[in-house]
Design a protein that fits this description.
The structure is a single chain. The longest helix has 57 residues. This protein is mainly alpha-helical and 116 residues long. 85% of the residues lie in helices and 0% in strands. The protein contains 3 helices and no strands. It has one domain. The two termini are 14 Å apart.
Length: 116
């Protein structure tokens, strides 16, 4: 019986899935670490961590705090997107790995059956 997909022909695609998934994983981790560091350096984040009452500040500080809070929201969005990229990298790596393992085992069974 002839196989629909030859393992030797589809093997590079599986390795490409694995490599792209690992690249996404590394990129997502880098992005997550850098945005987490930027969040901790943000003025609004540090101000909220101090639990200082907002009514006790002057107008100029309030404007700076408002701008920093908008930046903080953007950084948190970027950090959440980095988590999504990490998840996509893990999924793509797993799919490539599982497909490679599945086709390799079928290829070995096919070769063992044709050798008999």
């Amino acid at each position: 019986m002839r196989q629909l997909f030859s393992y030797e022909k589809v093997k590079p695609f599986f390795y490409a899935f694995i490599l792209i998934g690992l690249a996404l994983l590394v990129f997502g981790l880098y992005r997550f670490v850098t945005t987490s560091q930027a969040v901790t350096d943000n003025f609004a984040y540090r101000y909220h961590q101090q639990n200082t009452a907002v009514q006790s500040i002057d107008e100029a500080t309030a404007r700076v705090l408002m701008s920093a809070d908008l930046d903080l929201r953007d950084l948190e969005r970027q950090r959440n997107e980095a988590v999504i990229v990490i998840g996509a990298g893990i999924i793509l790596t797993a799919v490539g790995w599982l497909l490679n393992d599945f086709f390799r085992s079928r290829h070995q069974k096919f070769r063992a059956a044709s050798a008999s």
